[in-house]
Design brief:
Helices cover about 35% and strands about 25% of the residues. It is an alpha/beta fold. The protein has a 7-stranded mixed beta sheet, covered by helices on one side. A 6-stranded parallel beta sheet has the order 3-2-1-4-5-6, sandwiched between helices.
Length: about 300
């Protein structure tokens, strides 16, 4: 059984992941267990540990990484992820970093380089990559022929009082991850039109594919994707939250068991570069921003 050391108790993701492995009737019980938890707010960490049967609350992030097989960095905000992920990688542990990977591309590249140097499996994604509705759509996509375009929509920001929830990477990455899941890699540039109601990013691919990312300022909680090919099309309206957490965590556990991530970490780098280019284009009046500006 995989022993998980979890860093971060300030997000609802702490319990979203833990409830899938720790209770006896949970879907992944027996494959893994969260055995240690650290949170900046110790009382909050103790409360969640008691509710979800986490045996040990520790005093430092480093203590959460001892005598475990897998590190999960699940702090709510992306600016907290790099230092904790770095600790986990330096400890030699397979590491999952919850979304967003980081708030700065320099941190993304630094973590990826460190993991490569240490030979440590590293994974980061929005759980929407493994939404049940998306997996079902992917099974049909072989019949769509050559893919031409995908259009995805999602919330632009989180509905929380903390101003960090307004950082575009915080929720915007969900929609960008969905686009990458549907169209795959190879994005080269993003051009964004910003209005009061939404940011619409046009993503250009080297082979002529086009992606549209619609980040909505007034419709939190909606996630939808449609993909169009030469011979057919399909859509996914993502509503089953429990399924996408379960599917994602199953793959995180498999990474710890096998030593191999479920997809190349370069995919995560591209997702973050797409997000960064979308934001920079919006901030610069719609300039077309190549992903190469972010080391991609």
């Amino acid at each position: 059984m995989i022993r998980i050391g979890m860093i971060g108790a300030d997000s609802t993701h702490t319990e979203a992941w833990t409830q899938l492995v720790n209770p006896a009737d949970s879907p992944l019980h027996g494959r893994a267990q969260v055995v240690k938890l650290w949170g900046e707010d110790a009382e909050q960490a103790r409360s969640k540990a008691a509710e979800w049967q986490i045996p040990e609350v520790v005093g430092t992030p480093a203590e959460a990484l001892t005598d475990v097989d897998l590190a999960m960095v699940v702090n709510r905000y992306g600016d907290d992820h790099p230092p904790h992920a770095r600790l986990a990688i330096e400890a030699g542990l397979p590491t999952f970093v919850d979304k967003p990977f980081a708030n700065e591309m320099d941190d993304v590249h630094s973590l990826v380089s460190l993991a490569a140097e240490r030979g440590v499996p590293l994974m980061s994604c929005s759980a929407l990559r493994y939404a049940g509705e998306v997996l079902a759509l992917q099974e049909r996509m072989a019949g769509f022929g050559a893919l031409n375009c995908a259009v995805v929509s999602g919330a632009a920001a989180g509905d929380f009082p903390d101003p960090r929830a307004l950082h575009p990477f915080f929720y915007g990455v969900h929609a960008v991850e969905l686009l990458h899941t549907l169209l795959g890699g190879g994005a080269e540039a993003v051009t964004t039109r910003r209005t009061e109601r939404c940011d619409i990013g046009l993503v250009e691919y080297g082979d002529g594919r086009q992606g549209v990312v619609n980040l909505l300022h007034e419709t939190p909680g909606l996630y939808h994707g449609a993909v169009y090919g030469a011979a057919g099309w399909g859509e996914a309206d993502i509503v089953d939250g429990s399924r996408f957490y379960t599917e994602t965590l199953a793959r995180v556990i498999q990474m710890a068991e096998s030593g191999e991530p479920p997809f190349p970490i370069a995919w995560s780098v591209e997702v973050m570069a797409m997000m960064a280019a979308l934001v920079r284009s919006a901030e610069e009046g719609g300039r077309t921003v190549p992903l190469s500006e972010f080391g991609r």
